């Protein structure tokens, strides 16, 4: 299939700068193909910015980066109307959000007011300023990064807003080989020195999205998905289970993953591959549960039988 | 301590509940401070669970142990009696709760709980106690179930249901063990009941003894007649014959004082029709048995005595059941031996002079012995004698005081006075003690004889007639004999006045009475068929079913019936665990998984087919192809797009794939087996 080779090429292209992280690259692509926003959560210096930059490059998208700080205001992102003396009227100066791929760096450093301005725009894919609604460009992706929330001076995102991110990814430390390669190739200016080629045209991106919508989902798979969701709602270990939106997100991502695996239908493995990234940030473990959301989701995956009995 | 080691909250709550439930039946036997100790331990442990308090220090625990030992010693005065041993066990059980830190401690506590549960049977094997113990077993099992739940599981009743299902599954096995497990004699015997009070009629009688017994509503024994039940006035249950009056008390002649030729019970010629009945005695710690006049038993352990009583060769530690034939019309002792005549006439020289003078005077005025008997009875009837449960205390010469002063007495006073007068007048006479009457339970046609039916009457020996039963109480209070003690005491209101809650006091409330009788009928059946199912009955039951009993036969039947009841349960459990998938293709897939799990490859519940296939193919490379193609067929049908009407084709392919898989798996096992055979060949 032609799309397949496009996707594989994209993955290997990004892999040239983000070394040894093929699974995370694929998941990030999967998230974008499924029209979702991505939250990268990791310690500083793990390659979050590099990955998002590379994604913008290979998709050929216009790219803006906003560094979130505690004094950032909504207008700094959305844009502002300024009085033009020559024209004797207000003209709108669009903010950095009017781009195809927005990198919101350290989103949890901004105040909740600014966070929610961004998150609203993410959900609606449009911005309303001074009574005027302006469409955001198509496609529109947000890649937000955040440091683990227990650092001081941060405003953790509430659960309701975490839910707007289709996936949350953690990059983790590279393997020793990948790190060695990175150290060897490191140039003096600090970049890996490679300009990435654009691999996917806008038309191909549309094709991919159409193809994802056409992926077959069987009753058995929906059963499995519903059993997972029901488990999260019934088990005593969950304080907050998976919402219907989460179920939809799981299905969309599983579809995208099936396409990326060159399959015309979704199998349980697809669902299981995307499950931790899609579900872990949406659940809240009960107070008694010893682990975090990721552990809980993995436990759920172990406990729910794939085959109906 | 890891989370795995923690005792779940649910288990802790059930454990504490079961501990208190286990304590309840012992309440009447334990001192108050043991209850306080239970409450203390439970509170302490619960506060530890809530994180408010910490576990007691070692020194504190030591102090508690020493205090408990001392407490037991002071409360009971000994460590060796049954009650104190059980109290010691219960105390230790409560203290163990303070050492409940990890899961394994909880196991110790729970298994100890099952043991504590059985100690209740040392005291009572009543039907209600057994039902209550079943409840206790359920509670302990619930705690055991709860112990296997996650540590953060809060208290809930679901565990109770689960434990109930488990017990129900165990029920058939319990029946098999009950009927078939050999009742092995204990390897050592413990003087279990040494401190228990002896109940019932005792082997000597002073005025006041039997009226004291009449305050008890306990069941003495139950009788089941084969035929018609005689009227209550005829039911004189003879237990003891008192022929010797010494120091103001009547007693039997001890066997060493009886000459050898007088000891054997004479074989009398029976008269009239026999009454056939079975007596189920409650444990009395005494050897004598109760029967109607002139009784013989076919039971080898039942001995007949020369004064026509029955007794057992050993004290009745447990309930005892025996069969009796009685011929009430039989003449007892047509001729009286010289020794017997002498001993039935003996009186202490200096006692009750006024009564003896009165007797001699009355005898000289009457024509015959029989007439004298009638006159004495008439005296009781005509003079203002009162039958009462609250007789006054009598002085130095008790019968003089009774006959001429107080004239208020219970049956033993009348029997004493009557026998005294007979002997004084030269007529052989003796006191007989036992029970009179009984309550007929119409539900199962048994006669229930209570302790308050205890009675004493007299027998006089008349020329040509032998021993004649004379009941002077009947002359004073005919109601006692015709209607029972309750009616006789209706005016006085003293019937069971010490036990206001006894159900027997409420016999006038008809539904309550019928409930009581119904329970008694059930209790009779329980006592005679379940508690009374001893090794002898077990043997006779087994022999009646399968003829002569050999060891092989017994083991075969034992194991066989064990399997017979376990197999259906096992089958049900396995079936539930196995395939319950509704979709036939899911079933086929799961059966393939079973074939693989037989090779040691278990699919985890969260493992998707392709992942499992990959793992299986790596582990079993020779069958890799079959595994993959099977998975492909399955996965393709279940998750892929389906063509209309392709189901049968998919099923067929899946069956083929399964056959291939099983063949591939078995080839390997043959191939693997081959090399090991080669060196042997």
UniProtKB/TrEMBL annotation, chain A:
<dbReference type="InterPro" id="IPR027417">
    <property type="entry name" value="P-loop_NTPase"/>
</dbReference>
<dbReference type="GO" id="GO:0016887">
    <property type="term" value="F:ATP hydrolysis activity"/>
</dbReference>
<dbReference type="GO" id="GO:0005524">
    <property type="term" value="F:ATP binding"/>
</dbReference>
<feature type="domain" description="ChlI/MoxR AAA lid">
    <location>
        <begin position="232"/>
        <end position="287"/>
    </location>
</feature>
<dbReference type="InterPro" id="IPR050764">
    <property type="entry name" value="CbbQ/NirQ/NorQ/GpvN"/>
</dbReference>
<protein>
    <submittedName>
        <fullName>AAA family ATPase</fullName>
    </submittedName>
</protein>
<keyword id="KW-0547">Nucleotide-binding</keyword>
<comment type="similarity">
    <text>Belongs to the MoxR family.</text>
</comment>
<keyword id="KW-0067">ATP-binding</keyword>
<dbReference type="Pfam" id="PF07726">
    <property type="entry name" value="AAA_3"/>
</dbReference>
<dbReference type="Pfam" id="PF17863">
    <property type="entry name" value="AAA_lid_2"/>
</dbReference>
<feature type="domain" description="ATPase AAA-3">
    <location>
        <begin position="37"/>
        <end position="167"/>
    </location>
</feature>
<dbReference type="InterPro" id="IPR041628">
    <property type="entry name" value="ChlI/MoxR_AAA_lid"/>
</dbReference>
<dbReference type="InterPro" id="IPR011703">
    <property type="entry name" value="ATPase_AAA-3"/>
</dbReference>
From TrEMBL, chain B:
<dbReference type="Pfam" id="PF01841">
    <property type="entry name" value="Transglut_core"/>
</dbReference>
<keyword id="KW-1133">Transmembrane helix</keyword>
<feature type="transmembrane region" description="Helical">
    <location>
        <begin position="60"/>
        <end position="76"/>
    </location>
</feature>
<feature type="transmembrane region" description="Helical">
    <location>
        <begin position="129"/>
        <end position="147"/>
    </location>
</feature>
<dbReference type="InterPro" id="IPR052901">
    <property type="entry name" value="Bact_TGase-like"/>
</dbReference>
<dbReference type="InterPro" id="IPR021878">
    <property type="entry name" value="TgpA_N"/>
</dbReference>
<feature type="transmembrane region" description="Helical">
    <location>
        <begin position="7"/>
        <end position="24"/>
    </location>
</feature>
<feature type="transmembrane region" description="Helical">
    <location>
        <begin position="159"/>
        <end position="181"/>
    </location>
</feature>
<dbReference type="InterPro" id="IPR038765">
    <property type="entry name" value="Papain-like_cys_pep_sf"/>
</dbReference>
<dbReference type="Pfam" id="PF13559">
    <property type="entry name" value="DUF4129"/>
</dbReference>
<protein>
    <submittedName>
        <fullName>DUF3488 domain-containing transglutaminase family protein</fullName>
    </submittedName>
</protein>
<feature type="transmembrane region" description="Helical">
    <location>
        <begin position="30"/>
        <end position="48"/>
    </location>
</feature>
<feature type="domain" description="Transglutaminase-like">
    <location>
        <begin position="403"/>
        <end position="474"/>
    </location>
</feature>
<keyword id="KW-0472">Membrane</keyword>
<feature type="transmembrane region" description="Helical">
    <location>
        <begin position="106"/>
        <end position="123"/>
    </location>
</feature>
<dbReference type="InterPro" id="IPR002931">
    <property type="entry name" value="Transglutaminase-like"/>
</dbReference>
<keyword id="KW-0812">Transmembrane</keyword>
<dbReference type="InterPro" id="IPR025403">
    <property type="entry name" value="TgpA-like_C"/>
</dbReference>
<dbReference type="Pfam" id="PF11992">
    <property type="entry name" value="TgpA_N"/>
</dbReference>
<feature type="transmembrane region" description="Helical">
    <location>
        <begin position="82"/>
        <end position="99"/>
    </location>
</feature>
<feature type="transmembrane region" description="Helical">
    <location>
        <begin position="554"/>
        <end position="574"/>
    </location>
</feature>
